[in-house]
User: Which sequence fits this backbone?
């Protein structure tokens, strides 16, 4: 007996590998550096005043992100395909877990952060220009960026590189200007008595939670592995070099803020970057730093616009029901997947619901990252003979360090935001149910 439908995955075209190491590294840097580094210090100063301890926060957070990057680097080299956690969890554990991660990423995992970043762009842009609607400016930037990525991938790559280089140059100029401020604050960045106890305190742990979110995005290039030249080498290198560059930038930038601006002015404040800007550049310094943040956010929006649809594309290639999302134009760009993400971003901007969405998916995103990093250990046990062009340094310390920190963050979220975390788990469970209820039956049809 025959059926009218043969539900097989659509054949995936051989990926066009057009992205080199520099662009892949730029995507990692652009995806990590957002507004967090310009807004976190004020809350850290409420309970911590030691310059050494404050910089150690950013060092410890960077080491944790580096541990995650090392693990993703090994998995990307061993399982070289675009899709990030969707691809890794499908191969290591079960397609249902991969579909769960992909479902979250394809719906709001990238769209909500893009909406938040676009709204921040609109707000800072209005402050710099002195006029304009933040909402209209946010809509304008997401559409302009999407149009660049809908065309030739070389154009999208050049656009990404241009804005990432501009971001780094502007932040470097801000750091350099801080060294020439004549009146420095009486603060030491060397360890002092009591610093060890402060680093073991609850205040340090809570502050580290928010620092880790400023490092989120360190896994960016793993989502576009299929488009990167020599992925077995360039993906791990881009993850490591990009994360190290950001860690150095974060430590230097916070050091400059502390050295140039009185702690009393920053303590408990959100816009620390704007406050420090007045001490670095003078009265118009707030506007100058606002412009630096505003222009830097373009590369963040661009990187997420680029990598998010690659998860949806991989799902479309694997699952017959989602085949329309796996289609590409003649240049190899997943236009339908980009259009879907753009639509979701616009809905979130219209309804102003993006902040709530990000809060409730944080727990699920941490769970997916935890399972992926632990997958490094699982894959070594199950497939010991699998070719691994790159192996994690000092194994198994990096996956264990990352897992401990991530588990602590998840417990913190459950304690402080229990309802949102449970909603996030519900979204993940919905992804699993969709796989077994709708996707898997179609895959089984003959």
Assistant:
């Amino acid at each position: 007996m025959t059926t009218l439908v043969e539900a097989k995955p659509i054949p995936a075209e051989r990926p066009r590998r057009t992205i080199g190491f520099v662009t892949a590294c730029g995507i990692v840097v652009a995806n990590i550096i957002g507004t967090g580094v310009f807004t976190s210090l004020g809350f850290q100063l409420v309970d911590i005043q030691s310059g050494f301890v404050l910089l150690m926060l950013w060092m410890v957070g960077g080491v944790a992100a580096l541990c995650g990057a090392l693990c993703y680097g090994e998995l990307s080299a061993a399982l070289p395909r675009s899709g990030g956690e969707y691809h890794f969890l499908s191969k290591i554990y079960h397609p249902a877990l991969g579909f769960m991660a992909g479902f979250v990423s394809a719906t709001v995992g990238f769209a909500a952060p893009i909406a938040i970043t676009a709204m921040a762009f609109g707000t800072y842009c209005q402050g710099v220009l002195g006029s304009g609607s933040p909402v209209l400016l946010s809509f304008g930037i997401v559409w302009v960026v999407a149009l660049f990525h809908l065309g030739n991938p070389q154009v999208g790559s050049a656009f990404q590189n241009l804005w990432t280089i501009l971001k780094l140059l502007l932040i470097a100029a801000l750091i350099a200007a801080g060294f020439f401020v004549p009146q420095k604050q009486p603060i030491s960045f060397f360890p002092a008595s009591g610093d060890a106890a402060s680093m073991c305190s609850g205040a340090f742990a809570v502050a580290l939670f928010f620092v880790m979110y400023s490092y989120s995005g360190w896994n960016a290039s793993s989502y576009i592995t299929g488009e990167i030249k020599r992925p077995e080498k360039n993906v791990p290198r881009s993850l490591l070099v990009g994360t190290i560059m950001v860690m150095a930038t974060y430590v230097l930038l916070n050091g400059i803020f502390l050295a140039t601006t009185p702690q009393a002015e920053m303590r408990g404040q959100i816009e620390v970057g704007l406050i420090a800007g007045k001490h670095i550049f003078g009265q118009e310094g707030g506007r100058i730093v606002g412009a630096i943040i505003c222009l830097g956010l373009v590369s963040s929006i661009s990187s997420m616009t680029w990598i998010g649809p690659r998860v949806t594309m991989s799902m479309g290639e694997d699952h017959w029901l989602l085949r329309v999302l796996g289609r590409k134009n003649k240049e190899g760009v997943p236009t339908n997947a980009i259009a879907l993400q753009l639509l979701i971003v616009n809905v979130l901007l219209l309804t102003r619901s993006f902040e709530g969405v990000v809060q409730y998916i944080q727990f699920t995103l941490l769970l997916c990252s935890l399972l992926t990093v632990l997958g490094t250990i699982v894959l070594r046990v199950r497939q010991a003979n699998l070719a691994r062009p790159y192996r994690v340094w000092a194994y198994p310390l990096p996956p264990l360090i990352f897992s401990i920190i991530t588990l602590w963050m998840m417990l913190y979220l459950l304690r402080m935001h229990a309802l949102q975390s449970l909603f996030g788990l519900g979204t993940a469970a919905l992804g699993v149910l969709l796989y077994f209820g709708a996707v898997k039956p179609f895959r089984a049809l003959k």
